[in-house]
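The records we work with from here on pair a chain with its fold. These numbers are not coordinates but entries in a learned vocabulary of local backbone shapes. To see the layout at work, look at the sequence and tokens printed below.
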Amino acid sequence: MAEVSTTAFIDRSHWGRIEVTGADRLRFLHNQSTNNFQQLSPGQGCDTVFVTPTARTLDLASAYVGEESVLVMVSPGMATELINWMDRYIFFADKVTLSDQTDNTFALTLLGPDADGLLTQLGGPLPESAPCSHNQTSLPFAPATTIQIVRGTGLAIPGYTLIGPKAQGPALCQWLVERDITCLTPQQWEALRIRQGRPMPGQELTDKDNPLEAGLWQAVSFDKGCYIGQETITRLNTYQGVKKQLWGFKLEQLVPAQVPLSLDGTKVGTLTSVTTDDDGIWGLGYLRTKAGGAGLTVTVENTTAHVVELPFISRGYLDG
């Protein structure tokens, strides 16, 4: 399930949503994460990575800039942790307020070939073509309710994410089901994200990994001013110091996650996530850069795994 052949949706309301308000909101987020917020205008957005001062990963987030606030969508269970993390860097003079909107809102992701047509039926104009662009519309079955339509699915699959007041989430789900739109299960989403190569906290995003190793070059600006973790990330880029990379793996047999990857009897990496679907057994994991990449075959426990490239992963200078 690397792609979606029919239109489907997934309820992502359990993913975190942090609202950032105040006159300094863009400057603050610019200083707290890897992407360039200072160049964004209302209706635009970006993917960005929250990292420690030594550039270890906390989470991959998507941020949507509005007229008076920025909504930051983060991984499940990460909203409180990231609010507490960012709060440490809010000083007395900073005009910034953080609030957890996870329990107040729904988030549905719509993906597949008919996504544009469904949004047209909802009555809203499609967002601009740039990733994370967004606009607002009202729901036909709740004309007084405004929802946000974001271009992006959290994967390298075209589609949209719809965010709005929690009370309207079930009605929107029902509206989609009545149009024979399949609701993906959490297991199907997990298979998609592994086969796409999207890293997640606690698996591919840990205190042992940095954004460049995790294949998140598209979420890192190398031209912006100072931010937490910048020195390490700049040094890795300048001196081409990425020693491991995230890859996909096609496995011959099912094995657990967090087991070593070996080449000629030597450990060269670690498998971080495993899933099965109709096409076979798939994994994500880190492999030493010097060991090789796509096309390599490695040993995992008592079976083998073939290294494959994945669409969500970017590699910066490593692509050359």
About this structure: The mean pLDDT is 95. The helical segments are 25-32, 79-87, 115-122, 169-178, 186-196, 230-238.
